[in-house]
Amino acid sequence: MARNRRYAVAASGRRWDPEDGRRLPAGEVHAWEQGMNQTVCGLALSRSQLERFPGVEWTDVFPESGGAADAVQRVCRRCAAAAGRRGSDARPVWRRTNPRP
Fold this sequence. Notes:
By secondary structure, the protein is mainly β. It has one helix and four strands, in the order E-E-E-E-H. The longest helix is centred in the C-terminal third of the chain and has 7 residues. The two termini are 22 Å apart.
């Protein structure tokens, strides 16, 4: 049985939220699974100089979410394809309706 993966965010920059004083991702963002030293698309975090944001979930970096997406300039297409893009414009999950015997 497949487990439901939860992805955090790794980003090329950061900004401080003036209201609650947290650091939030900025610039280019990638999906990152905690415990791994690389992003979902295969970039090494240290070599790419990406910062980890374990408190920010992957679904919060999309502009339609209204979460931590204020300073995000670009979302990695490869990470979005692998981790899934869940939002208002997300495509439904592909399912075979009439499988062959």
